[in-house]
Structures are given as structure tokens and as C-alpha cells.
Amino acid sequence: MIYTIFPAEPDEMPQDFSTEREAKEYAAVKGLDGYTIESTTGDVE
Fold first, then answer.
1. Full domain range(s) for residue 6
2. Is residue 25 one of the residues assigned to a domain?
3. 3-class SS string, 1-45
4. pTM of the predicted protein model
5. Which of 8, 9, 29, 45 has the fewest C-beta atoms under 10 angstroms from its C-beta?
6. CA 27 to CA 9: how far, in whole Å?
7. How far apart are CA 25 and CA 27, in angstroms?
8. From the CB of residue 23, how many other CB atoms can be counted at a distance below 10 Å?
9. What's the Rg (C-alpha) of the chain?
10. What is the rounded distance in angstroms from the CA atom of residue 1 to the CA atom of residue 37?
């Protein structure tokens, strides 16, 4: 699976992760106020 995090901040770019946990940790480290995580099939390259 690919987990893409879409930050609410317009100056932040979406990022892909292998796990939802990694995506949430990224959001916490970056201090994102709001975000959406969407999952799709495939592998992060």
C-alpha cells in the first residue's frame, strides 16, 4: 500500500509513505495542523 499525506497548508507538498504510521509520524514531526491520509495500492519507490 501507499499512504499519501495531503497537508492542509498550501505551501506543503503531499508525501508518500509505506505505512500509515510513518505518515502520521511525519505529520507529528512537521507539526502539521491538519492533513488527510489516502491509501492506494502499490509500493513506494
1. 2-40
2. yes
3. CEEEEEECCCCCCCEEECCHHHHHHHHHHHCCCCEEEEEECCCCC
4. 0.85
5. 45
6. 12
7. 5
8. 22
9. 10
10. 12
Amino acid symbol at 17: F
| Residue 20: inside a domain | yes
- Matching residue, cell 508525501: 15
At position 15, the amino acid (one-letter code) is: Q
Is 45 inside a domain boundary? Answer: no
Q: Looking at residue 45, what is its pLDDT? A: 79
Q: Residue 27 has which C-alpha cell?
A: 505529520
Residue 44: the pLDDT is 85
Q: Report the number of distinct structural domains present in the chain.
A: 1
Query: Would you write out the chain's pLDDT as a tens digit for each of its 45 residues?
Result: 999 999 998 899 999 999 999 999 999 999 998 999 999 998 887
- Residues listed for the chain: 45
